[in-house]
Amino acid sequence: MQVRAQIAMVMNLDKCIGCHTCSVTCKNVWTNRRGTEYMWFNDVETKPGVGYPKQWENQERWKGGWELKGGKLRLKAGGRLRKFATLFFNPELPTLDDYYEPWTYDYETLTTAPTSKHQPVAQPESQVTGRPLDLQWGPNWEDDLAGAPEHARLDPNLRDGVEEQVRLEYEKAFMFYLPRICEHCLNPSCVASCPSGAMYKRVEDGIVLVDQEQCRSWRMCVSGCPYKKVYFNWSTGKAEKCTLCYPRIEAGQPTICSETCVGKIRYLGVVLYDADRVQEAASVADEKDLLPAQLSLFLDPDDPEVREQARRDGIAEDWLDAARRSPVYALAVKHRVALPLHPEYRTLPMVWYVPPLSPVMSLVEGPGSEADPDDVFPAIDELRIPIEYLANMLTAGDPEPVRVSLRRLAAMRGWTREKNLGVDPDPALAAAVGMEPREIDAMFRLLAVAKYDERYVIPQTHGEIGLSPYARQGACGLDFEGGPGSCGALEKAKDPFGAEPLAAPGDGRGGGSNVAFLDFRKAT
Amino acid sequence: MSAQEKVRPISGWSTLAFALDWNRPPRQQATSPFWFLASDQFRFQRTRADVYSTPLGNGALRGMHVADCNALAARLGWMPSYPTFDRNPLDLTREAAEAGMEAPAYVVERLKAQELRFAAEDPDAPENFPRVLTLWRANLLGSSSKGHEYFLRHVLGVEDAAVRNVEAEPDQRPTDVVWHDEAPTGKFDLFTTIDFRMNGSALYSDVVLPAATWYEKYDLSSTDLHPFVHSFNQAVPPPWEAKTDFDIFGRVAERFSELAVEHLGTRTDLVAAPLLHDTPDELAQPFGEVRDWKRGECEPVPGKTMPKLVPVERDYTAVYRKWRALGPLAEQLGSSAKGIPLKPTVEIDQLRAANGEIDGRPALTRDVHMCEAILALSGVTNGRLAVEGFKGLEQRTGTRLADIAEEHADVRITFGDTQVQPRKVLASPEWSGMESRERRYNPFTINVERNVPFRTLTGRQQLYVEHAWMLEYGEALPTYRPPLNVLGVVGTQLSGEEGRKELHVRWLSPHNKWSIHSEFQDNLHMLTLFRGGPVVWLSDVDAREIEIADNDWCEVFNRNGVIVARAVVSHRIPPGIGLMYHSQDRHVNVPLSEITETRGGTDNSVTRISLKPTHLIGGYAQLSYGFNYYGPTGTQRDEMVAVRKLLGKPVY
Ligand code: SF4
Ligand code: SF4
Questions:
Q1: Ligand 2: which of A261, A264, A354 to mutate, most ligand atoms within 8 Å of CB?
Q2: Pairing with A196, which of A349, A385, B216, B452 sits 20 to 30 Å away (CA)?
Q3: A191/A214 Cα distance (integer angstroms)
Q4: Which residue from A339, A336, A361, A364 is spatially nearest to A349, judged by alpha carbons?
Q5: CB count in 10 Å sphere of residue B452
Q6: Which residue minimizes the CA distance to atom 2 of ligand 2?
Q7: Based on the domain organization, do B379 and B437 belong to the same domain?
Q8: Residues A434-472: pLDDT tens digits?
C-alpha cells in the first residue's frame, strides 16, 4: 500500500441551475487571452446534447482514454508505435468546427458609425480570421435543449436501447445540466499520451498540469484525454488545461468555479488512495466493475492503519485530518450518492457527480407517496430521466448504483420533510435504503445546509515541501528571472543550508508504468 | 442606490432620491399611461374600453376610449399625469398672482371656465409634448419600451420605424381626448442617456454621458431576493471621461444653478399631486362611485374630486446648494413609510459628525455621504428609527408592536459596516415582515401575527372590490379572463405574400436567463455562451410546418413592428408559442428585415401598450396611487405575431 492524497471534487447535479457562472469566472481568470479564445476549462452542457467539443463522449471517434487489449491496459489511440506514426498527422484531433470558431463583434461601429439610414449594429466577426462570421456553433449552443430535436439524438449516451426510451417531445421533455472540468484522473491518459513528458500529475495533491517549458506541441494529450479537457493554444503552440486553480488550492481556497458556484453544487476535499493499486483498478475486465474497483482504491481515513501508512508516505497530519472531514469521501464512499463520469474510459476520474433527481420528484412525491418506501421507490424506475441514460454517463451502463443513489436522495427528501413537519420519520425509510438515521441526517446536512467550510475542506500545501523555507527567505513576489526583484528566479535560489533547489517540473519523475509522477520528496 | 425590485432602505432612499428633504411633493409619474400618450400608441387602440365589460355591468365605461379613461383618471386625481395642464405651471402661478388669487383657486376657476385643460386630454398638441428625457441606466429603447417602434416614430421621429399599424377609425376614436388628424412625430427636443454601454438607448440619444460601472463608484444595493444591504466600492477610478452617477448629477445641478441665475431665478411652481395611498386621500372618493366634475357630477375640489394642487416655491439658483446638503424637512416632516412617519432626530447630528457640515446642515458632497444618509434615515438600517416607527404604529393600532424591533434598537448600520460585509436588514414598519436574529423576512407577518390591519378598505385581506369600474368589468371578485382575442380585432398578421410559409404564434417575452428587465446580458462572454445575438424560440412542431430549421434567420412581425432573429427550435416549447427572452438589445447582430427593409427590432418591437382601464382606478382605498407600487401595467404581452423564415443571406 502506498498512500497518496488527491484533491477531488463532487458536483451535485440535482442543484445545478445552469447559470454558467462557473464557466465565466473560470474564463475570466484563465482563458481570456490570445490563443485561448475557444477554450473553456469549465463548461456546462445541457443533457441530452452533444456537448463541447461536439460528441466528446464518442470514443469510437476520438479514441481518448484507455482500453483493455488482451487483458492489458493501453491507450485507446494506440501504443508508442502508432503515436510516432501519427506524430505529424493526428486524425483524432478535434478541429475548430468541433469546438467552435470564437467570435467577437465590431463594437467600434457603435460609436463611430456616421449618420445612416438604419441604426448601426455590431456584427459578429471571427477572432481567428477577423472577417464577418456566420455563427454556426458555440460552446453552449444547446443551452436548455436549444436545437435538441436536431442535435440531441447524437448524444453518445443515447445508446444500448436508451435511444428508444428518450422521446424528444414537449410532454416528455427532460434535461439537466452537466458542468465539466478536467477530472484530474488517477490514471490520466493525457499524461501517458505525451511523448515529451510535459504532462505530470502532482504527487502532493494529484493535480494534473502541463509543463509549458517541456511541451513540444505534439497535441497527443488533446486526443488522449477522453474528456477533451486539454486544449491547444494556437498562439504559444502549447497545450493548456484546467489547473484546478492550483495557486488557490495550495492556499487552501476552492477553485474559482467552486467559489463562485451559484447553486452551491460543488464540493472539494481530500481523498486518500492506494497508489500501488491504481493500474490494477483501471484494468478490471468488466467495465461495470470499474466503479467498485475505483471505490476500492479509496482508503478509509479513519482507519488507523491507513493513517500510519499515510504518515510513512509523507502525508502531513493536517491532510489526514482534512481527509476525515472530506465531503468528497463522504458523498462518494460513505453515502454512495456521487458517481464518476464515464468510468469506462479507465482514467479513474476524480470529479464525481450526484445524479439529478429533481425532474422526477413530482412523480415521486405524487399523491400517496408520503414517506412510505413502498410508494417512493418504484417510481424511481419511471423517472423522466431514464436511469439507463444516467447509467451510460456515470456507471458504464450499470443501473444499480444510479438506482441506489437516487433512492437514497429520495429517501432523504421524504425523511427530512417529515422532520420539518414535526413528525418522527419512520426508521424503516432509512433502513430501506441501507442507511442509519444519523447517516441520512449527515447526508442531508452536506447536500442541503453545509456552509463554505464544510463544502470545501482543502488543506493548505506545505510550503516546506520541495524547497527549504530558508531558500525563500528574503524573496519577494517580483522574484522571477529578469524581474525587477532581481534576486533571480526562485529555481535558481540556493538554500544556505544545503538543501536542493526546487526541482524543475519534469525532473525526478517516479517510474510508474503509465503515469509519470513528479515527487518532490523523492527527488532529494 | 441600485435595487432589483425592492429598495430595502426605502424611507432614506426616497427622502434623498426625490429631494423630500427640501421640497414636497415631488412629481412622480406612472410610466405606462405616460408612454401610451407620449408615443401616440393610444391612436392605434381600436377597441373601446367597454369591449370587455360584462353584460351585467353598470355601463360605467360605455362608449369610452382607453385614452378617455386615462384623461378621467388624470382629472379626478386617480393617477399622476405630467405635464398636467396645457400651460406651464410657472405661468399659471404668475397669472394667479396677477389676478390676486391663490394658485389652486385660480386653476380651479380656469378649469371650470374651460380655459385651462388637462394635457392628457390633448396629448398631441405641441404644447403638451414631453420635450426632454434623461435616462439614467435604464435601457428604455434597447429593451423596456413597450411598443418600441411607436417610441422610435412618435417620440424620436426615427424615419425607419417599423410601425405598419392602422389608426383608430373615426367611430373608434376617443370622445373626450382631442384627435389630431396627423399624428405628431419626433416629440422630443433633447434625449440624454447616462450609461456605461453604447446600447440601444445611447445610440438614439442626443447626448451620452459615460457613467462609472459598479466597480468604479461607491453605492448601495438591495433586492427582494435576499435580506442584505450591500455596498459598491471603487476598485478603480472611472476611466476616461466617465463619472459616477453622483458626480454626473452634481455637475449638471451645478451648471443648471449657474444658468438659473439669469433664466429662472426663484419661482412658484404648482404641483398637481394624485390622491395617494396610505394617506387620508384614500377616502377622497368613497363608495367606489365615479363622479366627474367636468360633467358637472360634482364640484372640482382639489384633493377630493381632483388632484391636490400644491404651490411649491423653487429657487432654481439653489438647486446645487441643496444637492450638496441634507435639507431641514428631513427632520421637520420626517419620511413616511406606508403612512407611518419616521422622524430622524439624533441622526441629523450623527450625519453632521460623519459627513461634515455645509451651511449648518449635514453635507452630502460625496457619494459616500449619500450612502451614509440613506442608511441613517431608514428603519431597516437604523434600529432606533424602526422602534420609533413601530411606536407610531402602536398609537394608531392600539397594539404592542415596538418589541418587534427592540432586539435591534441599538443597531445602526453605517456605510463602513456594509463595506466590511453585506448587512442583514432590520424589521421596520417600512415593510410588513418580522425578521429577527431568528427569522427571515416574510411579507405580511406583522398583519397576520400582530393583527395590524392590512392597508385595505376593510383592513383585512380583501378580495371583493366594490368600485363602479370593477363592477362594470365583472371583476369585483377575482375572476379568470382569457387571453385577448387579438386577431379577432386586428385581423390576420400574415404577409399574404405568394408562396411564403408563415404561422401565427402567441408572443411571450419572459425574463432572460441571464438578466432581468432592462439589465443587459449581451456582453461577449454571455453571447458566446449561447447563439451570439437575439434569438426566438419556436416549437419543433411549428418550425417544421413553416420549414424553419434550428439557427435559421427568421422574421417575427405584426402591425406593431418586426424582429429579425435566429430561430432556436426546441421540443421544450409547446406549439403555438413564439418566445423571446427579453432585453435582447438590437445593437448586436441584428440584420435588416425583408418586410420593412428596416433594422430588426427588440422583443418589444411587436408589442404595444394596452392599458387596462381598471388599473387606472384611484382615490379609493387600496386602489390609490403609490409610486412604483400601484398603477397601470403595460399589459403588452397579450399579443399575436406571425413568423417566417428570412430568405437569402442576412443583410446588415
Ligand atoms: S480529464 Fe484531465 S487528467 Fe483526465 S485525462 Fe483528461 S486532461 Fe488528463
Ligand atoms: S455556477 Fe454552479 S450552478 Fe451555475 S452552472 Fe456552474 S456548476 Fe451549475
A1: A261
A2: A349
A3: 13
A4: A339
A5: 21
A6: A261
A7: yes
A8: 999 999 999 999 999 999 999 999 999 988 776 777 777
A64 CA from centroid of ligand 1 (Å): 10
Is A121 a domain residue?
Answer: no
In a domain, B446, yes or no: yes
Residues 6+ apart with CB under 8 A from A508: A518, A519, A520, A522, A523
- Of the listed ligands, the closest to the CA of A341 is 1
Q: Which residues of B touch A (CB under 8 A)?
A: 159-160, 198, 200, 203-204, 513-514, 524-533, 535, 537, 539-541, 549-551, 566, 568-575, 586-592, 598-599, 652
- Contact across the interface for A121 and B539, Cβ inside 8 Å: no
Candidate from A174-178, A487-491, B37-41, B319-323 with smallest mean pLDDT: A487-491
Domains identified in chain A, total number: 2
What is the rounded distance in angstroms from the CA atom of residue A313 to the CA atom of residue B264?
85
**Which of A40, A185, A202, A223 is the best mutation target for the ligand 1 pocket, counting ligand atoms within 8 Å of the beta carbon and taking the most?**
A185
Look at residues B249, B264, B298 and tell me which one is the last residue of a structural domain.
B249
Q: How many residues in chain A?
A: 524
Residues A177, A57: one domain? yes
Any idea what the CATH number is for the domain that residue A166 is in? 3.30.70.20
**Mean pLDDT computed over every residue of chain A:** 87
Query: B426-466 pLDDT, tens per residue?
Result: 999 999 999 998 898 899 999 999 999 999 999 999 999 99
CATH number of B563's domain: 2.40.40.20
User: What is the rounded average pLDDT for all residues in chain B?
Assistant: 95
- 3-state SS class at B386: helix
Among A462, A494, A516, give the residue marking a domain's end. A462
Inter-residue contact A40 to A231 (CB < 8 Å): no
What are A237's three cell numbers?
503552440
Q: What is the pTM of this model?
A: 0.92
Report residue A513 as a C-alpha cell: 508504468
| CA angle in degrees (0–180, nearest 5) for B562-B563-B568 | 145
| Dihedral sign from CA coordinates of A465, A468, A471, A474 | positive
Shortest-distance ligand to the CA of residue A207? 1
CB-based contacts of A40, cutoff 8 Å, min separation 6: A23, A26, A27, A31, A52, A139
Angle subtended at Cα A441 by Cα A438 and Cα A446, rounded to the nearest 5 degrees: 130
Q: Which of B541, B570, B587 has the CB atom closest to A146's CB atom?
A: B570
- Say how many Å lie between the first and final Cα of chain A, rounded: 22
Taking 80 as the threshold, does the pLDDT of residue B366 lie above it?
yes
Spatial separation of the C-alpha atoms in residues B252 and B320, rounded to whole Å: 9
Ligand of minimum distance to the alpha carbon of A182: 1
Q: Do B589 and A110 touch (CB under 8 A)?
A: no
Which range of residues forms the domain containing residue B113? 28-249
What pLDDT does B53 receive?
Answer: 95
- Contact at 8 Å (CB) between B411 and B39? no
Give dist(CA B369, CA B379) in Å, integer. Answer: 18
> CA nearest A107 in B: which residue?
B588
Contact assessment for residue B148 and residue B201, using Cβ atoms and an 8 Å cutoff: no
Gap between the Cα atoms of B13 and B374, Å rounded: 5
Instruction: Report the pocket of ligand 1 as residue ranges, CB < 6 Å.
Output: A 182-185, 188-190, 208, 225, 227, 229-230, 241, 347
State which residues form the domain around A523.
466-524
* Chain B environment of A121 (Cβ under 8 Å): 586-591, 599, 652
Q: How far apart are CA A264 and CA A15, in angstroms?
A: 7
Best interface-test mutation with A: which of B572, B599, B646, B651 has the largest number of A CBs within 10 A?
B572
pLDDT of amino acid B214:
92
Q: Is the peptide bond before B83 cis (omega within 30 degrees of 0)?
A: yes
